[in-house]
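Minimal example, chain plus flavin mononucleotide.
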Amino acid sequence: MSLHSRTDYTRGQLDAAQVQGDPWSLLQRWVKEAVDAGIHDPTAFTLSTLDERGFPHGRVVLLRDTRDGELVFFTNYQSEKGRDLERIHKGGATFFWPHAERQIRVRGTVKRVPESESDAYFASRPRGSQLGAWSSDQSERVESRSDLDASYERQEVRFSDQEQVTRPQHWGGYALVPVEIEFWQGRASRMHDRIRCIRDEHGGWSISRLQP
Ligand SMILES: Cc1cc2nc3c(=O)[nH]c(=O)nc-3n(C[C@H](O)[C@H](O)[C@H](O)COP(=O)(O)O)c2cc1C
């Protein structure tokens, strides 16, 4: 299979002035523009973690909040990513929006969000997703699809007389607190714009342009 298709990137441009010393606002703007564009899963990003041998793990999760300058996502704390993050409280987030020819890369420290926030988000989920959180020991082996379905059916029965499904203690949110944010805007002839913002010791950002 030959994969030689070529895209010339012409949909935008980016300079340091657009960051205006505040990369967080630009990140929020790009996320909002992706949402407004009506694309599928506009908040999906690849979360990178490191396992105990130092190998990277990447997988897609959904961004659920950008409050307080943090990227909030929800998952199973005992999953592979959860175990990685409980060991090494650091991670990376990579967004790619092909329609806008944009990428954002974030690196930072990761912490659990307050339990009250996980409770509130869990309560807002559809009942099926809530039952799914109880039914799946995420990242563990399962013998068959039918075993998995049987696990879900057991939870349906278990919660059948309860209006609210309670949040499992092993399920909740993490917040990625950026130390570095890089914006990439595709440009013609592979001469893309890259603006990298690094947190300085005063809580501000040092901003530079990188070669593509
Ligand atoms: C579009 C998309 C969105 C996803 N969103 C989430 C999410 O928000 N949380 C989550 O735990 N897994 C999500 N997943 C599944 C993860 O990619 C992954 O399969 C799962 O979390 C197990 O990862 P782990 O074994 O590395 O912990 C999503 C997958 C896709 C493709």
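The chain has a mean pLDDT of 96. The domain at 16-117+171-210 is CATH 2.30.110.10 (Pnp Oxidase; Chain A).
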